Amino acid sequence: MGERRGKVQKGVRFFIPSDLPGGEPKGKAPENNVLDVARIEQPPYIPPILPPSKPAYPESRQTVTTANHLSESDFSDDDDLTTARSVLDSRQPLSQPRRARRVTFYRNGDPHWKGVNFAINNKRIRNMEALLILLSEKIPLPYGVRHVYTLGGKRLTDLSELEHGKSYVCASGEMVKGVDYGRKTERYWHNRKPTAGRRRGENYLYKEDPVDRISIDSRQSMMSDQLSPRSKPRVITIISNTHRDSRGKILLNPRTSQNFEDILRDMTGAIKMTNPPIEALYTFSTEQKVQGFGQLFREFRDCDIFIACGSEALRRGPPSSEGYKSDTHAHVHHERPAIKQSRKTQTPQTQQMNGYVSRSDSGEDDLPSPPSEAYRPRRRSVQSNATQTDIDVDPKPLDDIGDNSMDTSGAQVSDPYVSTPIASEDDVVRMTIHGRRQTFFRPTSYDKTYVNPGSRPSKKLKLEWVYGYRGYDARDNLCVLPSGELMYFVATVVVMYNPRKETQRHYLGHTEDIQCMSHHPSEQYVATGQMAGQLPDAHAHIRVWDHVSLNTLAVIGLDTFQNGICCLGFSKQNHGQYLMAVDEGDNHVLSVWDWQADKIVAKTKTHPDTVVLGAFHPHEDSILITAGKQHMYFWKMVGGKILRDKKSGVFEGEKPKFITGMEFSAAGDVITGDSSGNILVWSRDDNNIFNLQHAIMRAHEKSVFTLRMLSDGTLLSGGGVDRKLVAWDSLRGYIPAKAERQLSEANGGIRTIVEQNAGQADGLLYLATSNNLIIQGSLQTKFTTVIQGHSEELWALAVHPHEHAFLTAGYDNHVCLWSSATHKLLWRVSVEKPCLSATFSPNGALAVVGTTVGLFVALNAYDGSLVASFQVGTEQLDAIRFSPDGSLLAMGSHDNTIYLFSVLDDGRTFRKAALLKGHKNFLTHIDWSSDGRYLQSVDGDYELLFWKVDENRRENPAVTRDVTWHTQTCILGYNVLGIWPARENGIDINTVCRSESGDLLAVGDSQGFLKLYRYPSTQKKAQSHQWKMCSSNVTSVKFLYDDGYLLTTGGMDAALMQWAVQATEGINRNRAKRY
After folding, report:
1. Residue that terminates a domain, selected from 646, 675, 702
2. pLDDT tens sequence across 177-233
3. By the 8 A CB rule, do 934 and 947 touch?
4. Is residue 271 in some structural domain?
5. Whole-model pTM?
6. Each residue's pLDDT tens digit, 487-512
7. In the sheet that 1025-1028 helps form, which strands lie side by side, from edge to edge?
8. Which of 62, 373, 518, 881 makes an SS bond possible with 568, Cβ 3.0 to 4.6 Å?
9. Structural domain count, the chain
10. Which domain holds residue 168?
């Protein structure tokens, strides 16, 4: 989920504190209820007593005075000399003191890191573990400092291996070799005498490596010119466009030789992004785009905060007020990439352009092999990049592993062997999860003979229904199959919906979100293209498949395409032998494939700006057209090459900003719609040049998203902003046909137009809209809804306690109640603000949703009518849950507080009962105990706390070890240890849900994976069934009350899916076969 970032003051030489903070007094539990081995083994730390007149960190000094350098004369008359002597005596060595070893540590893989100097003394730093902890606080690495290497690549395992005056490299995983550490960076500016403020006895601490020495005179000569206000360095703060609580501080050098694009790429490592690298900066207050590096020192010199965007558009709206945390345990929790608020925090980090550049270590340690049956140690310690676990092992054979093969239903299983249970002799488990030390207590009633809790469950999931449609950012993704089925895609799934039978079939061959599709001229085959994912093996590619059998026929371009695929199109004249595709990479490469032979026929670069459309000419396969931002190009394929026809497609006046729609007439004319609302007709003359023949100016208010030529010569155009469907008579010079319809604002703009019965004169149409709806009707009849769903991010999901119904609420301000039996929408209401949490009362009569502004709304669950609303602070409500008896309502807020409300008058009245404060970060998950006496909660820093509700206080985790929890949605706990990866893989766990029967656990993560585990899952590397649901977050998972179905939601995709829970042998294996 993220990485820990901390601010490091560079160039300061200092001593490591003598000891880590001491343990608590004997018999008293630590305040945070976490036992740490390092704290138990070391004596309490006695801080040095310093006179008030001598500050601990004087500005003119670069060292910290310790008690070893003090004498009685250093204390004022008011000091307690008795205490002072005892401190001095305790610090005097019994033998000749050993001089500290001064060493320098560098950051793995970063040649620009200036290094951090430490004075190492075995008396102050007792072991390697203590050193790693301190280095993690000073050197920002994605997963903390796990290893120390020599410059030659040797890994150190003991403090005695550190040599005075040497340099070392700190890493989370494997060391990056071939880097000239500490040699390529700019040196510190010197503005005072090098020896100022030093004591003679401390000069050895400042002795510089001759290789690192630079001429002070040379530096002074470089700085001899007076800096003007515009040329002085400045510090700016950048905020991630997709993760608004991810921030980084950047030190800009006005004299850098880098261009603006390189500087933006260097900034990328400071923040969390969905689409790295940074491609644009916008001012935070006015949202103006920064065009060049000089503007940061001129026009925007008064702006200190900027929004960093990747390939996505700027998301307008205020960021989270949570900001970033300064806590030493702060790290990135995978958040809701929200339009208003975010669910991720990150400690700010300062970077120096043309100096220090942040980057992530990708090295990983090999996992230990499983112990043999002949010998298994009584206690062993397993360490990895993500998790450190002390494990007690009973000397008995390993449990049966079971079948590790890939099942034909498409489940991808995890690592094959099952390791030993995570349990110890004292029933305490200690783990480090994303930089936070965790302690979990095993229930005293835990059955040690439980049969292999780390094995895959005996049940699996089968996708039964996909709600909604993807229209907010897609085009031409709806078509009617010969069977009458509607074909469209949502997330990674291609849906074939039969409106007459109200059934769905699904093609599940893709592993990332689908971006485009094309129907073969034979109407039997379909080509779909997916985007590239964030994982190494998630490549952009095209799949050609049979929509009848759902068999994959070809997989194209696994090593060819970069970020994704803009558009696809089959050739017409050669019966679909060729398939054209435009890459989403920087050059937007146009490639033509012989898809059956899996080879490229020809390719060429198109345009550096965005390409929106592309197709073969229907009358000639050698002619292709591509269009997008301020361009429309005609291409001719000749002799294995694609050449641009520069005489065709020339605009007479100003070019439109975007070409947004394209269609062909029966005569072969090319018809385009643009972002200015114009419709242009391009005809081919005797010289085979396409010239502008007709122009319908201002046909729509703004963008013409889609065009469709009907068989009778009528051209239909669909507008985005004006939501109009307009008819034009192409046989009479494209004059208006006096037929026009305007959709309601709730429907949104028109994205795609499809004939319901192609070739017939009934005029029935399907329209796909930008609000993720599919409606049917005609220019003469009323349009009715066929497919509907949410149009913006979807985070809130709740299931009815005793009905086959569930509730969703999203950032589109809509709250919807669905029937899981009929897949129909029962009711939909609008609320004032975006929603991101929801719950039902135990009797099912009340539904409560939490919003992004601290307002919760109570609705009648049967008709959606408003019952009550209450303002709870100003921060978003991330988690909301009724107590089992319905008398209390708990809400976890972004202000780090749990609010408890008494529920009165059958839910018509809510009265604030208590506030539970103790978390240092925003709340993410809440669970009640079955008796309603306890709460467990998790926050954005992965801190699990327990609460005694009737006393409004925190409870010791050891006390709650035997508590039975009414639900299990918290992502931390003894019973869910097995879901955490054995090594850091960049995937965060967003949501979990235990089945009502208590034997299954559903998990959703940040990469779109849905996993199914046994419950409890108490073994490291527990096995699971998994499916790739979408490319963004799986935001919520919930079992229905009878465990017959599992509901899942996806964030950015607004994807809502229903999965049938079936026994392994009972799953019908009619899904798509993988190629």
Report:
1. 646
2. 777 787 554 444 445 555 555 565 555 555 444 434 433 344 344 344 444 445 678
3. yes
4. no
5. 0.63
6. 999 999 999 999 999 999 999 999 99
7. 989-994, 1000-1005, 1009-1014, 1025-1028
8. 518
9. 3
10. 1-45+93-222
